[in-house]
Amino acid sequence: MRPFAFVRRFPSAFTRLDRLFRFRDQTGAEQHGPSTRLGLTQLEDRIVLDAVGPGEYWDDGQWINGYKTEVTVALRNWGPGWLEVTGSGGAVSVSPGSDPTASGPGMGYGSGSGMGYGSGYGSGSGMGYGSGYGSGSGMGYGSGYGSGSGSGLGNAVYAFEVWGAIGDGSGDVTWSGEADNLYIQATGDVGAIAISGDLNINAGWTIGNLAGRDVAARAGRSIGSVTAGDDVWTLIAGTSIGTVNATDSIGEVRAGTNIGVVTAGGNVGTIAAGQNTASIQASGYILTVSAGWDVGGSVVAGTFIGGYENPTNDWTVWQYATFGSGVWAGRNIVGSVLAGGGLAAVWAGGEIQGEVRAGGDIWSVTAGGGYDPTVGSGYGSGMGSGSGSGMGSGSGSGAVQLTGQITGPVVAGRDILFIYSTGDVVGTITAGRSITAVNAGGSVLGSVTAALDVGRRGAADADPTWRPTNYDPYWYGWYGWYGYAPFGAGVQARDGSVAAVTATAGDVTLGIGWRVDPGNDSGRWRHRQCDRWDGSHRGCDGRAGY
Fold first, then answer.
1. Which end of the chain offers a freer environment for a tag, N or C, measured as fewer CB atoms within 10 Å?
2. For the CA atoms of the chain, what is the radius of gyration?
3. What is the pTM of this model?
4. 3-state class of 241 per DSSP?
5. Distance (Å, whole) CA 456 – CA 441
6. How many other C-beta atoms can be found within 10 angstroms of the C-beta atom of residue 33?
């Protein structure tokens, strides 16, 4: 990533041109502050563009009796580049400009003995601000524009702010032209922009489609679709954000309502929608995806989802890592959740409808217990008396609690720690090593299969290169997990039945106290009354099954 270079300033030699900043207003008094070099001038039916230099102020007002009046929009240029500005009715059109006092070439190739920087000031011995690296030596502030060849070094860095004066939402900006770095702050809307350089846009209302090298944007309302040739840093919108595509990585995308399809050639940090997300795909990792309503599409990462991966298991990396939360939805997770590495958490207030798969460990998959976000909650109470002496009171809530369901399948290349649904676990559950707990408020309808054990942690250590949280499972164990499996270890169906359970090279633990149909169990298993395994079976029911 390249930082936005908006703080560059011109050389102090500008002070030699101070007299050009002086002008007289309509009262005849000399003014010394920065202002535009030219004014909006009516020529028949044409409007002349204003050239606004670095540090200068522009507005569309008129001088009447010594006072500026009828201003609807204003602009301040606080970048190093010149701007061409025209506007009225609370909106401006802005494009790259040049110094109107300079003669000779504007931007060209440095020549003779110099290095030019931007637009030339005057011919002959003027200050060369043009472009290019000349073929001679030294910095060319002298004379001579020869035919030296070199690459152009333009002054294409622009930064300005616009504010409207005719009510909320005024102060709109339309930009046209190329830029290496462009920063715009506006109180109104900013229209669609496509440049080859970096973009940083801040709008009080909406932002149109954006395309640039590195892109960052913040809008009080919506942001259109965003395409970055390198990285998307931060996108924040009060309402919706369109599709987001980055050749490399995406840092943060947050919207008050919906977010479109998100695609990254590298990593994805945080995607958070107040209502719904669409599909999200990254060639690298994904830290956190959250939706107040639904995660409406698939979530796919080439490496891990949630937690953090440290391939070297370096202690200092763990200390400063940013751990992701996984995939969370207030209502439903509609699509698949697929991770090439570890998967920290998949949580839905209602249903998990797609496949959940990880090449490494799965820490937790949880469905149910949330409330429908589209149904408001309300509480009320009342008392009344009849003809006798009766009196009663009551309260109620309009909120609708959701019943969980894990449609599945759920598959892990290593261990599955915790699966819990307030309703049914419908899909199959498969682990390349061990499964600690599968809990259902209803039934476990799909088969549960582990290559080692079901109902206890496997004999091998936890994955040394990935952790779901910032504590070390190797030293501290997988403690505090009862919130993930409220009915305990093993396969537990509180109000239903358990289908086939298989531990290919280990043991199966089923809990006591819930409705379990042992006739549906298969494989090598032990029916015990404890949630732990100590090798000697002490403290457990040692019956070898039915």
1. C
2. 33
3. 0.75
4. strand
5. 20
6. 10
H-run or E-run covering 319? helix 315-320
Instruction: Decide: residue 118, CB within 10 A, 0-12 exposed, 13-18 middle, 19+ buried.
Output: buried
In Å, what is the CA distance from 62 to each residue of 115, 163, 167, 387?
41, 17, 19, 79
C-alpha distance from residue 471 to each of 171, 307, 477 (Å): 50, 11, 9
**C-alpha–C-alpha distance, residues 461 and 423, integer Å:** 32
Helix, strand or coil for residue 242? Answer: coil
Residue 68 corresponds to which tokens in the numbers above? Answer: 């500026």
Q: Cα dihedral sign for 443, 446, 447, 449? A: negative
Q: Count Cβ atoms within 10 A of the Cβ of residue 41 and give its class: 0-12 exposed, 13-18 middle, 19 or more buried.
A: exposed
Locus of tokens 């820490």: 363
Sequence letter at residue 85: V
**How far is 312 from 528, CA to CA, in rounded Å?**
39
Distance (Å, rounded) from C-alpha 376 to C-alpha 343? 32
Residue-averaged pLDDT of the chain: 76
Cβ burial of 480 (10 Å; 0-12, 13-18, 19+) is exposed
pLDDT surpassing 90 at residue 140: no
CB 159 within 8 A of CB 9: no
For residue 313, is pLDDT > 90? Answer: no
Contact 51, 82 (CB under 8 A): yes
**Residue 38 dihedral angles phi and psi, to the nearest 5°:** -125, 160
Which residue shows structure tokens 């540090």? 55
The Cα–Cα gap between 531 and 456 comes to 8
Written as six digits, the tokens of 88 are 């009225």
Are the C-beta atoms of 491 and 498 separated by less than 8 Å? yes
262, two tokens: 């998100």
